[in-house]
Amino acid sequence: MFLTIGTTGTPERPATDLGFLLHKHPDKAQAFSTSHGSAHVFYPEASAERCTAALLLEVDPVALVRRGKGKGRGGAPDAALAQYVNDRPYAASSLLSVAIAAVFKSALGGVCRAMPERAENPLPLRIEVPALPARGGAELVRKLFTPLGWERVEATAVPLDEQFPAWGDSRYVQLVLEGEMRLADALRQLYILLPVLDDAKHYWVAPDEVDKLLRAGEGWLAEHPERPLITRRYLSHRWGLTRQADQALELVRLAESDDLDVGSVDNAVDESTDTEEKPVPLAEHRRTAILDALRAAGASRVLDLGCGQGQLVQALLKDVRFTEIVGVDVSMRALTIASRRLKLDRMGERQAGRVTLRQGSLTYTDKALTGYDAAVLSEVIEHLDLPRLPALEYAVFGAARPGTVVVTTPNVEYNVRWETLPAGHVRHGDHRFEWTRGEFREWAEQVAARHGYTVRYVPVGEDDPEVGPPTQMAVFSRSADAAPGAGSAGRKTHDAENRTTEKTGKKEAEAA
Ligand code: SAH
């Protein structure tokens, strides 16, 4: 069983860095014993320009039979012989997967202390597996790898016997993948997809396989168009486990997507919608509304607070009037995805000079966020526990005090129009609350009053006459005479509860 991983480089960024990323020195050939034989890692080539690591797994068929159930291959009547004489030694399968996990454990986890930045970023990779058993053929191989972003996915059928072309093709393909990919992502994909293509496992699939699937599938599996086939085959068609995995992945998908599927909303709202026309996703309506509000305010230096995976930052970059764009998020993972989406590492200097991504929590004040024209909180407030909201309010309206603040949040009244949403459910697993239009306005009025802002409201998405729009947006403008620091209007209020909220918020926000 054989697999090669190659990359190219330059004198400044030598290809041999691959050795650091794989935690295997290019000058050494190393052997590891695994439960089914021995794995060897060596480098057929290692120069600054090109470096290729090879993983060779020598399977011990006797150990395989002794250790396990010899599952998967060769049923009766010649099962006994098939346990010894089979394709195991040659064909990349779940055994190779297990070897990848054992030999490249740190790389699979994306860990590289020597070169964290190299491990975090995509490399030009070339992966080759000369004999890959593919149930579903070359077609399925392409369906599995193409959506993952590989530029070249080549699956060539291997003939049964080159001497006898008339015998046709074997069920093996030679796989070549090429593209810019993070090494850890590439290894995780192989770890799952090799046994999926083989559609057999050499060991009994226990419930902990669900965790392994979710871990290795992080960041790519939830949204994969072939997800049902992948989970079903990876979990050896064990229905209970497959269902568990699917439910977990569905939650992940919801969390990663901007909102619910807007197609179902359009169907619910307007039966006569022209189905030929692709509906504009709600997230896009939202970005348009936000950009309009920022332009109307004449903003050029903008904070995107809770920027998530950077879709709005990307849209802001397209308009040159936004000269300085800062995306802030508490999630490092979201920021990493944002940075990849924006291709920050490959951006020209001028363009890159306009954008900064920083990690930070919005419930703490941060001096670096003062002095901006505008701040956006798009679909963020509902991710905070209500008691933490005053802290965010103070950090943004009390301390950072941008001229304009745009806040969007779901309108819970609209949820009855989402056909796929069970009654009483929030739209997203991580929403701590969802407000009616009345509740949002009440909060916004108080915030504006406390901090010296005026506020107007803009519906986003179709404004339903009965339940309002799916997204509600408030645009706050700092009043010209508002004192910096605390809102002048806020101090004038006689509402005891308001004052308490402001004080608590301030204390919490500054407790960083
Ligand atoms: N603004 C984006 C993402 C919304 S999802 C959009 O409109 O698509 C909410 C985001 O808020 C997540 O990325 C989450 O990591 C971030 N977030 C939640 N609580 C936060 C906090 N306390 N500080 C900073 N970011 C936070």
TrEMBL record:
<dbReference type="Pfam" id="PF12623">
    <property type="entry name" value="Hen1_L"/>
</dbReference>
<feature type="domain" description="Hen1 N-terminal">
    <location>
        <begin position="1"/>
        <end position="247"/>
    </location>
</feature>
<keyword id="KW-0479">Metal-binding</keyword>
<dbReference type="GO" id="GO:0046872">
    <property type="term" value="F:metal ion binding"/>
</dbReference>
<dbReference type="InterPro" id="IPR026610">
    <property type="entry name" value="Hen1"/>
</dbReference>
<protein>
    <recommendedName>
        <fullName>Small RNA 2'-O-methyltransferase</fullName>
        <ecNumber>2.1.1.386</ecNumber>
    </recommendedName>
</protein>
<keyword id="KW-0694">RNA-binding</keyword>
<dbReference type="InterPro" id="IPR013217">
    <property type="entry name" value="Methyltransf_12"/>
</dbReference>
<dbReference type="InterPro" id="IPR024026">
    <property type="entry name" value="3'-RNA_MeTfrase_Hen1_bac"/>
</dbReference>
<dbReference type="GO" id="GO:0003723">
    <property type="term" value="F:RNA binding"/>
</dbReference>
<comment type="similarity">
    <text>Belongs to the methyltransferase superfamily. HEN1 family.</text>
</comment>
<feature type="region of interest" description="Disordered">
    <location>
        <begin position="478"/>
        <end position="512"/>
    </location>
</feature>
<keyword id="KW-0489">Methyltransferase</keyword>
<dbReference type="GO" id="GO:0031047">
    <property type="term" value="P:regulatory ncRNA-mediated gene silencing"/>
</dbReference>
<keyword id="KW-0949">S-adenosyl-L-methionine</keyword>
<dbReference type="Pfam" id="PF08242">
    <property type="entry name" value="Methyltransf_12"/>
</dbReference>
<feature type="compositionally biased region" description="Low complexity">
    <location>
        <begin position="478"/>
        <end position="490"/>
    </location>
</feature>
<dbReference type="GO" id="GO:0001510">
    <property type="term" value="P:RNA methylation"/>
</dbReference>
<feature type="compositionally biased region" description="Basic and acidic residues">
    <location>
        <begin position="492"/>
        <end position="512"/>
    </location>
</feature>
<dbReference type="InterPro" id="IPR024740">
    <property type="entry name" value="Hen1_N"/>
</dbReference>
<keyword id="KW-0943">RNA-mediated gene silencing</keyword>
<keyword id="KW-0460">Magnesium</keyword>
<dbReference type="InterPro" id="IPR038546">
    <property type="entry name" value="Hen1_N_sf"/>
</dbReference>
<keyword id="KW-0808">Transferase</keyword>
<dbReference type="GO" id="GO:0090486">
    <property type="term" value="F:small RNA 2'-O-methyltransferase activity"/>
</dbReference>
<feature type="domain" description="Methyltransferase type 12">
    <location>
        <begin position="303"/>
        <end position="404"/>
    </location>
</feature>
<dbReference type="InterPro" id="IPR029063">
    <property type="entry name" value="SAM-dependent_MTases_sf"/>
</dbReference>
